Amino acid sequence: MQTKLYKIPVSFSDILNNKGISTINIRNSIEQNIQLLITTVNGECKFDKLYGCKWWENDFNLKQTILEIKEQLEESVRHSLEIYEKRLNNAVITATILQPEVNQPGKIKVELNISGIITSNNQFLKCRYVFLISPFCQY
Q1: Where are the alpha helices (DSSP H) in 39-124?
Q2: What are the IraD/Gp25-like domain coordinates in residue numbering (predicted)?
Q3: CB contact at 8 A, 37 and 44
């Protein structure tokens, strides 16, 4: 029996109108879990206080260099994936610090590329996420 993978956010109006819950494939499920992991602060999930990305504890650390931000972000995401996304093997995480737009003073633009092999079907997966940090703001 194949496990059903559900799309988030759940559409409660579809449920109330007897349309059921939208399902997704393994690739999309992994991508949405990674996005949730990297945008969740440790302690934010009430069912698992360790779920999320530890890096956000350093979000307002103004003494960090760009290289330190990059390395800490990559290591934090790698650690979270090892624990919470076991459907992805040989994950490679690359963070690139970009120059934000002029109208975003005090923010750092990050491009996060994650690739690996999906365990269940041996397919290659590559995801790209772009967001602003200090303070965090999804881009």
Answers
A1: 66-84
A2: 27-113
A3: no
Distance CA 57, CA 15 (A): 37
Residue 22 exposure: Cα atoms within 13 Å on the Cβ side? 11
Return the axis-axis angle of helices 26-38 and 66-84, rounded to nearest 10°. Answer: 130
Dist. CA 13–CA 17, nearest whole Å? 6
Residue 104 lies in a domain: yes
Would you state the structure tokens that stand for residue 31, as one six-digit string? Answer: 């991508």
User: What are the tens digits of pLDDT across the range 54-97?
Assistant: 877 766 666 677 788 889 999 999 999 999 999 999 999 999 98
Residue 110 included in any domain: yes
Q: Distance between CA atoms of 66 and 135, rounded to whole angstroms?
A: 15
The domain spanning residue 105 has which CATH number?
3.10.450.40
Strands in 43-107 per DSSP E:
88-98
- Its pTM stands at 0.84
> Which range marks the domain in which residue 87 is found?
12-138
